[in-house]
Amino acid sequence: MAKCTAVIDIGSNSMRMAVFQKTSRFAFHILHEVKSSVRLSENAYKNGGYLQHEAMERTALAIGEFLSIAYSFGARKILCVATSALRDAPNSDVFLSRIRREHNLSIKVITGDKEAYYGGMACANLLPGISEATTVDVGGGSSEFTLLRNGKVEQLYSLNIGTVRIKELFFDQNDIAGAIEYIDEALKQLPPFNTETLIGIGGTFRALTRSLMKKEEYPLKKLHAYTTDETSFLRFSAQILQATPKKLRSLFIKPDRFDTIKPGTLILERIIRHTQNKTLICSGVGVREGVFLSDLLRNAGDRFPANYNPSVRYLLDTYAIHSDHAQQCAHLSKRLFDLLHISLGINPLYRPELAIAAKLLSIGVGIRYYAYQRHSHYLAMSALDYALTHPQIVLISHLLLFKKGSASSSLVPKGSYGSLLPDNATLDALSALLWLSHILLASRINASDLSAELDDKGALVITGKNLYLSREQLKNIVLPENLTLILKEQ
């Protein structure tokens, strides 16, 4: 059985746990997540940083129930880290000793730099194409920054500006000018990062992103890797800062965030103006994933192997266990792409998406053979979470849909994700190459058993044995008008 690891992150405002399940050496998925707004640092900043009795009681009760959940999944390892609230509190030992005594759990209080590292490392591994960027994780008590260069964490910073801290020290006294002055003074400690991209981690950034996506009627329900620009984000932030509680509801802010969303928004607004990043990316991963990955990748330099995607591997581990047909389709589709992408007018950058779609072609069979293409589409759309952009996820997933005699562009659901797909000609050509590969291997032969070449008239000539079923099934797919196909029995 695959191993389960539970990671608990005790923050100043919220406590969260994720239960991760490995499916092979580096592949994993999340079995369960739970969050509790324990507000461990509530009223602490007004009282010299000392944790208050009621807040410790809430947190201790939640930890007990978190552990019960982890054990119900058979978690073999429980990793628990705590950040600013326990880092700052003079009486943190009282709480740590109690949890150790009552629950036999050792909480690791991590430094601000370590907290920044976990968040940055998670982003470097699980966001797509991140070479140079600045990450920011606005928490309840502090904000952590990392500079990513060449996909690796290069610099770490932690500043004592967090939503609960700013709320209690300034917003509760209606001293917004004082909050701005305090935040701006703290930001002077940061060096000039000089990066185009800012990656937002943490509850405040995700809450704002979720609301912005709903306001814009974004067609995909995935926070991770959602991308926007500085102008749009700052414009929306201004609306949040000026909103009444009624207006916050209309802006899709949840009531449990009403008291912290404005301090958090102000912190982010000042950070964005200070760093002057033009592109903003929302990260659905952070400290918890960083803690898990540090354990998972401890012998690999905290990096996945080149071109490795844990979401793709998870789907293959879990659902593609019946044959290597999809792997053979991937080999053949890449060969056909290399032969035909110029004549079909396909951008060569789409080759990786075609290969991934081919690998995932038959994962739906693990659900039910009948209409397996629809199941494959759903699984890919739902579970392709990491290291892919939203347009990549949508393209890969849509290519898995199939209907006899229909072009791929005719299968796009109305009012859905069509705006994230390439033009119809490209979409139809990629789909034709994918399903042509599938049909050419209908008798479950190896891709290496077929030769593919272009003749002097530009026709695609496929030569091999066992092509009877392929010839019979060709009528089911729509080939591009400028593609002539010739099958030759060897």
Short structural summary:
This protein has 490 residues and is an alpha/beta fold. The protein has 18 helices and 14 strands. Strands 8-7-6-9-11-10 form a six-stranded mixed sheet, sandwiched between helices. A five-stranded mixed sheet has the order 3-2-1-4-5, with helices on both faces. The protein has a three-stranded mixed sheet with strand order 12-13-14, covered by helices on one side.
Characteristics:
single chain, 490 residues, Nucleotidyltransferase, domain 5, Hypothetical protein af1432, 6-stranded mixed beta sheet, 5-stranded mixed beta sheet, 18 helices, 43% helix
Topology:
Layout: E1 4-10, E2 15-22, E3 28-36, H1 53-72, E4 77-82, H2 84-88, H3 92-103, E5 108-109, H4 112-126, E6 133-138, E7 143-149, E8 152-159, H5 163-169, H6 176-187, E9 197-201, H7 203-215, E10 227-229, H8 230-242, H9 245-250, H10 258-275, E11 279-282, H11 287-296, H12 310-319, H13 325-340, H14 351-359, H15 372-383, H16 390-399, H17 424-440, E12 451-454, E13 460-464, H18 468-473, E14 485-489
Parallel strand pairs: 1-4, 4-5, 6-9, 9-11, 13-14
Antiparallel strand pairs: 1-2, 2-3, 6-7, 7-8, 10-11, 12-13
